[in-house]
Amino acid sequence: MGVVAAEMPAAFQQEALRAQAIAARTYTLYRLANPSANHPAADLCGDSTCCQAWMSVEDRVAQWDSAKADGYAEKITQAVTGTDGLALYYEGKPILAAFHAISAGSTKSALEVWGQDITYLQAVTSPEGEDVAPNYYSAVSVDKADFAETFSEAYPQADLSAEDCADWFGEESYDEAGLPVSIEIGGVEADTGQVRTLFDLRSATFTVECDGDTITFYVTGYGHGVGMSQYGANALAKEGKTAEEILAWYYTGAEVKSMSN
């Protein structure tokens, strides 16, 4: 319950919360079978960038509107207990049930983001947009000199000597869904995921422009883009889809089954 409360807004549709509960339970099973090298003394951690976020009862109640707290607590309780024992499986094993906040119209494949082709983590369309997802678009501005210093540390072969920083940027490469996967900067091809990390962008789906001494990234979505989009799941739930249908949408070929089986 602490994971669902931390990972998804309690105001979301019940079927989206149920889908999140099943995905979180599945991720836990996967991590138990495939421990992280980041913490060899523990099976799981509460860092969302490594395992899964977690929130205590006190902390979640403190952040909720007091008039809605009881209702939110009941929704999360029902999402977890109502899916008790259910998890996602592919070929008899719990899947790596990755999820993220907001996609940019399509999720991304594990191959594209992590360099590993995983059958059930393929790119699929996702229905959220700026009308349903907060900060669907965002912008990050970086001083020209700071950009050059940061990028050159990661890509020392890059040539950023041109006076006009607009000349630093070349063509972008895109995946089949039309999302950027790499961009030419200073004559080198940089992975957009790496650029996202370097400049703390909300996602790797962005365009960039230079105006004088300022470089601005225009970003769409939030998160790595692999697996279930949480705002997409909520949009699908609003359309009437069940938790099982939402999970089937995002995890290609995976099945919801009882852990006892």
Summed up:
The chain has 261 residues and is an alpha+beta fold. It has helices spanning 2-7, 14-33, 57-63, 69-81, 110-114, 144-154, 192-198, 230-238, 243-250; strands spanning 86-90, 93-94, 99-100, 137-143, 169-174, 180-185, 188-191, 206-211, 214-220, 228-229, 255-258.
β-strand amount: 15-25%
Which radius of gyration do the C-alpha atoms yield? 20 Å
Give the termini distance in whole angstroms. Answer: 23 Å
- Computed structural class: alpha+beta
Number of helices: 9
Q: What integer is the average pLDDT?
A: 95
Topology as a string of helices (H) and strands (E): HHHHEEEHEHEEEHEEEHHE
Q: Within the largest sheet, what's the order of strands?
A: 2-1-11
Helix content: 25-40%
**How many strands, what sense, and barrel or not for the largest sheet?**
3 strands, antiparallel
Task: Please provide the count of β strands.
Answer: 11
Q: pLDDT below 50 for ≥5 consecutive residues: which ranges?
A: none
**Gross geometry:** globular
